[in-house]
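Tutorial, part two.
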Amino acid sequence: MAFLKVVPLEEALRVINSLPLEPKIEEVKLEEALGRVLAEDIESPIDVPPFDRATVDGYAVKSKDTWGASETNPVKLKVVGEINAGDIPNIELKDGESIYISTGAPLPKGADAVIPFEEVDRENGWVLIYKPVYPDYGVMKTGADIPKGKPLLKKGT
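Running the prediction step on this input gives:
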């Protein structure tokens, strides 16, 4: 019975390095990727979130409508609707209007800020705003978590 022949390290490396290595690139589903190596960088194909969204429950407004608001001189905006998380808004906010909006819901067209409901009073279909807000107040912008095209995974990992 013969045992394996021991080969010097240099010769073993020469033999291994002379072997033709042609890695095969395959496209596989994510659940089949465990233990595989990426052949190319992976970038996000979409913006996350895919729309400007409310970070609080409150009222979507045009920030310019709140300028000059104060405790002694609140701005009064008409409440013209409601948008919940999962809704696709089909309303455009006009000057002097507000829309009740839930956390995570997409901002309606025309809105650029969300005032938390704890910071306002609501009376008979109107909302009273006691402080001015700036654009993007209470808003997470499109792609804020992950912008489209951002590298997620590197080739070779």
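The chain has one domain: 8-157. In part three we will examine how such features are distributed along the chain.
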